Amino acid sequence: MTNIVSVKNLTAIKNKRAVLKEINVEIEHGDCVAVIGPNGAGKTTFIKTINGLTAYSQGSVNIFGNALNQEIKRKIGYIPQNNNFDALMPISVREVISIGFTSQFGIFKKFTDFDKKTVEDISKGLNIFNLIDKPVGQLSGGESQKVSIARVLAQNPKLILMDEPLSNLDKKTQTDILNLIDFIYHEQNITMLIVVHNLSQMPKCCNKVILMADGKIIDYGKKESVFANKEFRNFYNL
Question: What is the model's pLDDT at position 162?
Answer without folding.
Answer: 95
